[in-house]
Amino acid sequence: MSGGTGFIGTHLCNALKNKGYGITIISRMPGPQRLSWSDLHEKGLPKGTTAVVNLAGQNVMDFTRRWTPGFKQNVFNSRINTTISLAKVINEAQVKPSVFITMSGVGSYKPDPKKEYCEDSTCEDFDFFSKLCKNWEKAACLDEECKNVCRVVTIRSGVVLGREGGMIKQLYLPFYLGLGGPVGNGAQYMPWIHIKDLTNFIIFAIENPKVEGIFNGVAPQLCTNKEFSKVRTKYYLYIIRHIVVKRNCILCCITLPLQLLFSIPLLGMEVILSL
After folding, report:
1. 2 lies in some domain
2. Is residue 29 one of the residues assigned to a domain?
3. Which of 37, 50, 122, 209 has the most C-beta neighbours closer than 10 Å?
4. C-alpha angle 184/190/193, rounded to 5°?
5. pLDDT tens digits along 54-78
6. Element (H, E) at 202
7. For residue 1, is it within any domain?
8. Residue range(s) defining the domain that contains residue 99
9. pTM for this structure?
10. CATH number, position 178
11. Cα dihedral angle (160, 66, 81, 214), rounded to 10 degrees?
12. Is the pLDDT higher at 112 or at 258?
């Protein structure tokens, strides 16, 4: 597993260990049950590997980082290059794993309040994230001979929600201070999935040989950014009701200051507004 120490990877590792799975994490840091990228390239997959899961990637929800060309390149390389490397070692392995699971995102779909998307919907390049997702999925392609043995499962995930990381962790402080609010007018839909559901989805894909292809990893309930902001505000009001008499979600994040603060280009803002 790559990305095994991140938000999703940590939850997945714990869930797999509870089910009795042995896990080897591909990491830049040495440690027990870990494998470096250089060792992977030299020695190939560990003996007895039955599934390969790629969760590697620079966190795009890190609001402490500015969207410089260098950061965008890191977001791209950390996903594409790792996926290409894993696909290569799978193709070269004498004994193939049964499944190769990799992530993508709902950024593949152009935001449209009147249009519904499914896995078979046509995806077109319209901004940085749509191009990223397209190249990300393309990088997971295996040789035809390998496909007869190893399934490829691609999960186009929505915003992953959970207390310990991801978007929720980034929003703790502004919402606690009463400064959280919808982005723009808040009318944009925000596809989401809870970390436990995503973890269970990945395990289901590992264990079921009929699962193959592209899947949208999102909750069935529709939610706008404004609705999400209201729910978060009520949650913090409940927590701090003995400290603060009244705290409401009255602020809206205006797009121009966000662009100036994080150097997010106009096309990048379209994706944030679609979250």
Report:
1. no
2. yes
3. 37
4. 150
5. 999 988 877 677 888 999 999 999 9
6. helix 195-207
7. no
8. 7-274
9. 0.83
10. 3.40.50.720
11. 30
12. 112
